[in-house]
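#onboarding

Welcome to the new folks! Below is a worked example of what a typical request in this channel looks like: someone posts a single protein sequence, and someone else replies with the predicted structure as tokens. Don't worry about understanding the tokens yet, we'll cover that in week two.

Example request:
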Amino acid sequence: LIPGEIVDRLTAGDNPIRVFREWRGHTAADLAEQVGIAPSYLSQIETGKREGRLETISAIAQALELDLADIADWVTRARGQSAN
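Example response:
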């Protein structure tokens, strides 16, 4: 189960990758290394400057011990909120 404080952050529109990364206790540098991407690329994904390739997002989800759908659902919601 996802703690309420995490759901609150996600519902507020915080980037799901950053929220889940912090919840799992990873630094951005550690997660980027584990996934095999540059920390700057991860930062761009987390700030919304880049969307990230499906393969990359899938690898991030796996590293965070999540299903791709867990991240994709929140990304879709966040994009819908930013369009309003």
